[in-house]
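Below sits the subject:
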Amino acid sequence: MLQLRPNCECCNRDLPPESADARICSFECTFCADCAGSRLNGRCPNCGGELVARPRRPADKLARFPASTERVFKPQGCAVSTAG
């Protein structure tokens, strides 16, 4: 089950479970749409994988299967990707 991490690893922007602006790679590294598109060129800076829209868990399932509260943040920011 997806963790639905609560923030962007690059800019620390909040990404609640219902956010349409969350992007993830296959390892669930999580970024906002702005960082994923403008800084990372659609590639995860951690693994090089493709960043895609994170699925949204239906609200009625969040009570039983809550999103993660563990924040992952890189204060130094994310390297700009040249892959793509």
Summary: The domain at 1-57 is CATH 3.30.40 (Herpes Virus-1). Residues 6 and 16 are 6 Å apart (CA to CA). The radius of gyration is 12 Å.
